[in-house]
Amino acid sequence: MDMLIFKLEKNSKKPLYEQLYMGMKDAITHKQIEVGTKLPSKRKLADFLNISQTTVEIAYGQLLAEGYIASKPRIGFFVEEIEELPFIESKQPKKIIETRKNENEPYPYNFHPGKIDTESFPFAIWRKYAKDLFDFPSKEYLQVGEPQGEYELRTEIANYLYQSRGIICDPEQIVIGSGTEHLLPMILRLIETNSKIALENPGYSAIPRIHLANKAVPISVDEDGLIVDELEKTDANIVYITPSHQFPTGAVLSAARRTQLLNWASKAANRYILEDDYDSEFRHIGKPIPALQGMDQNEKVIYLSTFTKSLMPSLRVAYFVLPPALLQSYQEIFSYYSATVPRFDQHILANFMKDGHFSKHLNRMRKIYRKKHDKLIHTLESFYPNISITGDHAGMHILISVPLAKLEHELKQIANENGIAVYPVSDYLLKPIDYDQPTFLLGYGGVALEDIEPAIHKLMTCWGINRNTKKGKSHKL
Ligand SMILES: Cc1ncc(COP(=O)(O)O)c(C=O)c1O
Predict the structure, then answer these.
(1) How far is the CA of 279 from the centre of ligand 1 (A)?
(2) What is the DSSP letter of 286?
(3) CATH number for the domain that contains residue 386
(4) 10 Å Cβ neighbour count for 450?
(5) What contacts 101, CB < 8 A, 6 or more positions away?
(6) Is 121 helix (H, G, I), strand (E, B) or coil?
(7) Ligand 1 mean position to 179 CA, how many Å?
(8) Residues 202 and 136 grouped into a single domain
(9) What is the rounded average pLDDT for all residues in the chain?
(10) Which side of the chain, N or C, has fewer Cβ within a 10 Å radius?
């Protein structure tokens, strides 16, 4: 073989043997050195390139290990046959899809409904539980845990659900995972045999994206929640619903509709209700609304909830409660999947709950969100009846409607240009609804108490809505 010239840089950070190995590998894969060619001896190549024999030896060793060359004892090294990698020529220049940026950050006033109050998180207590786990090394937590999630955390969740949501369940029925959107496909896989899913319209916008394959059926929502009459007229066998606090309208599923829905589910073996209890912890008026699961006699409700609002969205801990009849299928399909939440995080949370800090935190947050809620309503009241509000009984957002002859997205743009992020209800529609007036979600969880009034005044000014000197109420619900 003619001696190949390899560009070796002695001052490079890359070791010489690696440069030589890369150069030779490149020459072999690009067929610059023919198959079967005998390579120069280590000494010859070392002399030619003015490098040490050890450098050549390491490079040859690596090529040998990876199968680019073969050694024939006492004869030398020969280039092996390597199949070329296919190269599919594309007319389009390669484009790297940019990572989706968090569009919620740049606004001084952000009314995103998913934001929480970050000033009130009990960092010191959380840190203590984290520190305890690492100070007294829990070596077994380095190994993979139970697929359904840590038993200790499932026990705490079961206790919490019993005390706060009227749900009687065993820790064995609970499955923990890193967020509702990751758990939903699991549930659908579990119950799906040619299933058709009905969704609330408006509703949680991630669901149709998760479940595009089977074309979801939109069901309207009114002041009493999902219209079950409408569901009954469809061929859907699964319904996803937020009965305690409809997202995003805030409606509570009425008692009559609850029984109607449970009866609908009991009429066929493949019918199920997915109850998402998101945002049910913070009710500002009246008593908490019990979960639908607690009324279910026929094992038809799969209950889902999350710590996203009650603790923090970044924790990524959500869970579902399976009816006992589905446990066996769950184990058959999913026992090979590991839990998606790190064991250490699960134990921090379990210990935090066990010592009563979760209930304390919820009580504290209820007061904080209540104050923000009252401040928001009070500020908006001075604009009645030029605006109207709905869905203000629970949760961490309300809906406001404004009598303006502009599209929601134009109004959103104007608000954004003034440093305020608001969220049009049309972003949550599976099927268009003709609202009389542009309507927006205003989440107040992430806006500081003292910012609420100036933010609303700024919003109303930029939209050209005047304050009303005469007081009057304008609630739709
Ligand atoms: C109804 C509903 N459920 C669940 C979630 C998200 O829950 P997680 O953070 O556990 O994925 C949202 C978020 O907007 C939601 O609107």
Answers:
(1) 8
(2) S
(3) 3.90.1150.10
(4) 9
(5) none
(6) coil
(7) 8
(8) yes
(9) 91
(10) N
Indicate which CATH number applies to the domain containing 68: 1.10.10.10
Q: How far apart are CA 447 and CA 363, in angstroms?
A: 19
The binding-site residues of ligand 1, defined as CB within 6 angstroms of any ligand atom, are 114, 179-181, 204, 242, 247, 276, 278, 306, 308, 313, 318
Residue 108 covered by a domain: no
**Ligand 1 centroid, distance to 318 Cα (angstroms):** 9
Fill in the amino acid letter for 130: A
Q: How many domains does the chain have?
A: 3
Mean pLDDT of 56-81: 93
In a domain, 241, yes or no: yes
Task: State the Cα torsion 212-214-215-221 to the nearest 10°.
Answer: -100
What's the rounded Cα separation, in Å, for the pair 245 and 435? 20
Task: Provide the residue range defining the domain that includes 14.
Answer: 1-96
Residue type, 342: P
pLDDT in tens, 428-458: 998 888 888 999 999 999 999 999 999 999 9
For 280-323, how does the pLDDT look when each residue is reduced to its tens digit (9 = 90+)?
888 888 888 889 999 999 999 999 999 999 999 999 999 999 99
- pLDDT of 1 strictly over 80: no
Q: What angle do CA 165, 167, 168 make, to 5 degrees?
A: 150
pLDDT at 104 over 80: no
Which tops the pLDDT comparison, 12 or 136? Answer: 12
Residue type, 294: G
Residues 132-169: tens digit of each pLDDT: 998 887 789 999 999 999 999 999 999 999 999 999 99
pLDDT at residue 150 in the model: 98
The enclosing H or E element of 301 equals strand 301-306
What's the length of the chain? 477
